[in-house]
Amino acid sequence: MIIKININDCIGCGVCSQICPENFELKENEGISVVISQEESPSVKEAIDSCPVSAITYD
Ligand code: SF4
Fold first, then answer.
1. What pLDDT does residue 48 have?
2. For ligand 1, atom 8, which residue shows the shortest CA distance?
3. What residues are in contact with ligand 1 under a 6 Å CB criterion?
4. DSSP label at 45?
């Protein structure tokens, strides 16, 4: 399983990094979040489901 953020869809809201800072980091300068670890933390699925634009894929 690979966690990815579609940077064309990400609006940089920071929800994923707030819910799951172990896997996501908001790059405020770039206006997007990035995946910082593929090691699945317990909150990663909640973060994926909470993305308002469904920019995170996990497959
Ligand atoms: S929750 Fe979605 S839109 Fe918001 S920063 Fe994360 S990937 Fe981007």
1. 98
2. 10
3. 5, 10-16, 26, 33, 51-53, 55-56
4. H
Instruction: Give the range of the structural domain holding residue 25, as residue numbers without chain letter.
Output: 3-58
Task: Kindly report, residue by residue over 34-51, the tens digit of the pLDDT.
Answer: 999 999 999 999 999 999
Structurally, the chain folds into a number of domains equal to 1
**pLDDT tens digit string along 5-29?**
999 999 999 999 999 999 999 999 9
Say which CATH number the domain at 29 has.
3.30.70.20
Residues 25, 4: Cα–Cα separation, whole Å:
12
pTM for this one?
Answer: 0.96
> What is the distance between the alpha carbons of residues 1 and 10, in angstroms, rounded to a whole number?
20
